[in-house]
Amino acid sequence: MTESRPRLRRRIEAEVGECCDADVEQRLAELDELADAAGDGGVDAFAALGNDTRHRLTRLLSAAEGDLCVCELDPLVDVSESAVSHALADLVDAGLASRRKEGNWRYYRSTDLAEDLLAVVDQEGDA
Amino acid sequence: MTESRPRLRRRIEAEVGECCDADVEQRLAELDELADAAGDGGVDAFAALGNDTRHRLTRLLSAAEGDLCVCELDPLVDVSESAVSHALADLVDAGLASRRKEGNWRYYRSTDLAEDLLAVVDQEGDA
DNA sequence: CGGTTATCTGAATAGTCACTCAAGCAGCGT
DNA sequence: ACGCTGCTTGAGTGACTATTCAGATAACCG
């Protein structure tokens, strides 16, 4: 594997003055480890909130004082009731909402994770 | 529009005892307003972090002490360099990374928004 | 200037995803 | 039991999206 990653090598040379292949690979390995340690957790939470319908549902759940049932959410998003159900299931899977059964109704509520994530973008957006 | 939203009406009747159409629509309007006031801001930020490549790049930028150039990031994600460039552009557009030009290199750095969002899911994930 | 370097951009494609439709299921009332 | 209600689930399809390839750009160096 002689002379691998030429660009990166040149960049390190430009920065530090000199650089051998081992230096290159070591720097990469360090970063790789750091990023992996941080984990890739939460990708699905982000993906869930990155869709308009699910985002709006989460906003609604967050804005509501108590919890809401599907028949309350349905009129507020302009997709079919089936789509609402799908979206809510995704939110629960992503840890952004919780479900409670009561008779024939299912009540949804936003989780702390959802609240905190929304708070971050709201706060940062105003800045 | 007599007798609209029958399910919702029944639900409110079950809860409060009685309910007229106006009550139904008013409750919906309130929620709608609340959710809209909160805004739909940040959807693109969430969407950006919801993709594996972009998420990983953000993690790398966040894990790095200073800022990183493309030639450092490229070896750490297994997509083409072009895809890395696309992804980084998306991150900048979403406000999750900033770009700095220096000679022939472009250095990327994660923004506060990115840091805060990642912090939330990391913290919540450990709980 | 011409050549090389590091990165970007646009078009095309492959893959994923969100929606709708139709059917299904559990809980309640009769 | 039966039907009705509120919601869910699965299959299918159209729309979007992430990636790649090829060509472009801008900065540096001779």
Offer a few descriptive terms.
DNA-binding, DNA-binding transcription factor activity (chains A, B), Arc Repressor Mutant, subunit A, 7 helices, HTH_MetalResp_TranReg (chains A, B), 3-stranded antiparallel sheet, homodimer, mainly alpha, 127 residues, 3 strands, 2 domains, 63% helix
What does this structure look like?
The structure is a homodimer of 127-residue chains. The first copy, chain A, is 63% helix and 11% strand. Chain A has 127 residues and is mostly helical. Chain A has two domains: 6-38, no CATH class; 43-126, Arc Repressor Mutant, subunit A (Orthogonal Bundle), CATH 1.10.10. The first copy, chain A, has a three-stranded antiparallel beta sheet with strand order 1-3-2. In chain A, a hairpin with a 2-residue loop joins strand 2 (97-102) and strand 3 (105-110). In chain A, helix 4 crosses helix 6. The longest helix of chain A has 18 residues, at 21-38. Chain A is elongated, with a radius of gyration of 23 Å. Chain A starts with 5 loop residues before the first helix and ends with a helix. The mean pLDDT of chain A is 92. Chains A and B meet through helix 1, helix 2, helix 3, helix 4 and strand 1 of A and helix 1, helix 2, helix 3, helix 4 and strand 1 of B. The first copy, chain A, binds a DNA duplex (30 and 30 nucleotides) through helix 1 and helix 6.
